[in-house]
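User: I want to check something. If I give you two sequences, will you return the structure for each one separately, not as a complex?

Assistant: Yes, each is folded on its own. Here is the first sequence with its structure:
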Amino acid sequence: MKFSAKYLPILIFSTFALGIVLGGLLNFPNTADYLVKNNSKSKLNKLIDFIDNEYVDDVNTDSIVNLTVDNILAKLDPHSVYIPPSEQLEVAESMKGNFVGIGVNFYMYKDSVAVIKPVADGPSAKAGIQSGDRILYADKTKLFGRKLPTDSLYAKLKGSVGSDIELTIYRKSERKKLKVRIKRDVIPIKSVDVALLLNKTTGYIKINRFAETTYSEFMIGLGKLKAQGAKTLVIDVRDNGGGYMEEAIAIADELLLNQQLIVFTKSKNGTIDKTFATAKGNFEKGNVFILINENSASASEILAGAIQDNDRGTIVGRRSFGKGLVQREMNFADGSAVRLTIARYYTPTGRSIQKPYSKGNEAYFKESEARFENGELFEKDSIKVSDTIKFRTKKGKLVYGGGGIVPDVFVPLEVEHGNESTAYLLQSGIVGNFVFEQLDKNRGAFKGLSFDQFQTQMKGTNVYFNAFQKFIFGNGLDLNFGKSKSLVKRYLTAEFARQLYGESYYYEIVLTEDAMVKRILKQK
């Protein structure tokens, strides 16, 4: 039975909501964590001990404790969450901005670990690992034919800096096995995907999250763009769930004048902590545009709110998620953690952009789905704002609180060449999987092509478009691309470019017809 495509956007909204809960939409100070030691015998501890020692059947008391913590936090707000040890390690690495490993992007294709692309200048690239290689063994551990979960594969490939690992590789293009010894090293996890020029004077920076290294990555990108002649800056935080608020504040500081308010927080006892811009701004003049959508949250909203409320730039896109709560993290000895909401944050005009959560977590996260269903993603007039929560900037611009950042310039979901389900699908991981499989069948078809030759070849063929349509039907999605051909071909070409040439080439292709980017360039 085929899955109806009309439910695809709702499924994707649900995926983003899960990311909010598990740490993609954090907004906590980047400070030393607590280490919680429970020595006192509270009522809860006594109960657990009683069960452990006296209960008639064997019980995993750890699971009871986890369930208890989850239930307690569920009574609070949607962003106060418990994170078990396995998930906490992954989130911590992502927010740190690097990990120690061999440096490959891989894909579990059928029953094998297939290399999509080695990280540039990483250990695997230096050792000669190539796109399309299959990793059969990590030292003596068999990896193929076992359908190992991704976290188990990561565990086999990670290690300490400078440690060796011997990989047994099958190189399909040469039909032979190879043994490659690799010395593990620190691998960066980029939070700034790309910094490039949209035209001779307009720079573009894409930020996917706010991690420990985001500000430094941003400054490197900004420096490059200024050197290339950028006078206008477009910062893209679409689908950016947030992260460390200090990183967003530091970026806002580079754009705002000395002593302009960036954000302030208010705790339970009424303590207010204000953060102002300093005199060090590196881009205090020139036009600024911030791109947001329904999945921009937390630290992304701090940046957008600071720019909007200070009349510094233009917010373009669709209403942001609406997370205005600050969390503090407490680590436990077993590697788990609790993130507890300790304050609310407010934009410079004094507005809270936190959307209501009094109806419970399920209703809170389904609010994103409701935006799709009520037409808000397609018509600005469908955005529901409260007239009782309105503020004005110093220049008199009307802004609203109570549920996300409402953009100055509304741009609907990109559906001009098709429907919304197609638009969401093309930005999902399924396109990358399809492209890898196509390259794996005939990587030689692109060998030796320059980027311009590649683009010409892709424009002149419908082979991959037709194959992708068949691929989608084969995966149970009843989604016909007949009216979306140009949109589908653009994203397919972009993904081929990413896997063949690198990340920046993906954006170079996608942004040429991006609705929000086109709107900015047109109004300039």
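And separately, the second sequence with its own structure:
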Amino acid sequence: MMKKNTKEHEIDIKSWLFKFKNKWYFFLAFALISLAGAYVFVKTSNSLYEFKSTLLLGDQQTGSRKAQELLNILDVPSKGIKVEDEIGLIKSAEMVKRALQRLDFSVSYYKVTDHWLNSFGELVVQEQYNEAPFIVKLDTSSTQLVDIPIEIKVLNDKQYQITIDAEDVKRYDFRTHSSSGLVPELSLVKVHYFGQPYKDDNFSFTLLRDSSAADINGKKHYFVVNSMKSQVAIQQSKLEVKPIDRESRVLELKSKGSIPEKELAFLNTLMEEYVAKDLEEKNQNGHKTIEFIDSQLATLTDSLRKSKQAISSFRSANKISNIGTQSTIGSQQLSQLQTERARLVVEKQNFESLLEQFRGEDALAQAVSPAAAAGVNNAVLSNLFNQLTELNREKAGYRVTATQDNPRLQVLESKILNTRNAIVSNLKNVISSTNNNLRDVNRRIGEVETTLARLPESERVLADLQSESEFVDKKYSYLLEKRAEASIALATNTTDKKVIDRASLASSGPVNVKPKMIYMLALIIGLIIPAAMIVLISNVDNTIQGKNDLANVSNIPFLGVIAHGTKNDKLAVKNNPRSAIAESFRSIRINLQYLMADQDYKVVGVTSSVSGEGKTFTSVNLSTELAMSGKRTVLIESDMRKPTFNKYFNTDNAAGLSSYLTDGISLEDVVQKTEIENLDIISSGPIPDNAIQLLERPKMRELIESLKDKYDHIVIDTPPIGFVSEYFILMKHMDTNIYVVKHRFTNKDMLQQINELYASKRIKNLYTVINDLDYGKTYEYGYKKKASYYYV
């Protein structure tokens, strides 16, 4: 059973540092590559600077508050403001578009520098603003191809070469700011003259040479014609608007760009357009009210002139200087009633005009200003107008980012519709009430007129003329008063928005390209990647990496390690007794003698999991070391399926273990002397068909017993236990068992079978040996590299 070590998941920092040090060239290579990439990034990236400005939203009042209180045009409470809605309006595509239409950003200029990186392509490119060696004058009455680079190469003071190579290019109409088609492929190289219009099916512009620019003959520049849609998208992506504090009405506008002049101009223009649009919307309804009153005054002016002239003519014709007391009283009553009727008529016309507006197609978008409601003295209607204005503003904020299906937007539209219906309903009620009052006034006028009819005809006619003249005069005076009030309200209209700080540079340096930080980050990444690769490979690798690794998966006692050597070191103990391998076997022999000091370990079995782990190499060199230490040793090759002793000894395999077990050959005939003193071997002999059955015969035990009488040690090279079952037959003859695992070759899972044998105590005196361990590739034995001068 595999051992469960409680320290299996602990991090051995020294071990990892050793692994990293052993692969130092990986770190160097990745660090150099990463730093090279950082250098290219720094040189090819445009430096971005941050800019900021501040804007005050105000308290949402329309016009001068002092003038409003003085004129008492509309008695409504102060309205609040939603900062989120205003932020949405500022960042909206329509507002950004208004700002860009005032600026000349339709053409962007770029320069390909002389940097050596551009020999690999156009990597280092700089945008130019007011510094380009030429100016592009677009013919906006013609369609243009947009959003593609148009290369310009200056040939001399008079000529330039235009080069275009692009696919799927959009046609753009600057008059309507809309796309008008697509060009699938375009390839063009043409020479043209500065100052002369260039026009074809795709372009229409004039290139003007800047005489103050340095000599740029032969150098590469290009420009891009920007569509309004792309300009708006770029500026929206860079624009950030937020209040300076949670409850503050002061907004901070931020933007990033590589050309300070462009970004400063954009932020300032955007704020100016936002303030101007706010005042423009507030003045719009005031102008409509004045226009309505002016149209009424134009009609009344002629009526007033005619009524005055009629009275004068009548007095002259009838020689009437004054009216009697009764006529005077009746006339006064009639005048008062007619004044009342005039007031009701004007109010009715005002209400009917408002009703007509709200019945129009654009009714849902209307918001009535105080100037528009100059003649409305109805508190309910005033509050409804205020609610509709606030709802329309909130809807405008939501429409910036929300779609038509947005639930919140649908709720707002429903509220706007309900408010509009309430206004229409109230206007109808007020009109109906006014009509009732008019009927009552008309009835009373009729009664007075009937009374006056009894007066002398001349006096009655004069009274009628005076009443008509007074009616027209009162109505005219009333409208003049209201026009003056509306004009004052319009003249005192001011926006509640105010630019506090104009745009300025917010950062002392670039916010994106910081060479020191980028190089440091690149170096860290260059060190992290190889470290991560080493960790990943180490964790994926399931082979035995060293003594600690072996101890984590097995409880079998550890005997020692065998140093790494070359393929020519087959008999390293004999041929190179001062080598690291020879020293390894010397250490294993001493450890074995120490561990078995009070036991008889004449028969030593050597096995492994699979072929290739060094089982035979270990048994041969351990036998050689035992023999060279003065012990009479015999080495038996029991792997009769795959004999390999001929690679180590100059032996004859015609007679061997298989011959002894089958043909009855004597022991003296199968034991072969070697060139090593005290070491004899018994090769496997001819390969039999029934190796397992041969090893199960009693003669195998007889062989072992006979050899025990003649030798101090018997070393048996057994087949690997992972492939065949011979080892389980032979292990009953063994006093000591050595299990060989190969460094960075033996899979940990292969030890499960030998672990089970050890745990069940079916095998005795079992020890493990790590073969082919490279001291330079393991932290546990790294110190042995320093002892290389002890070895030859």
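Because they were folded independently, the notes below concern the second chain alone. Confidence is low (pLDDT under 50) at residues 1-9, 60-79, 782-792. The chain is about 45% helix and 20% strand.
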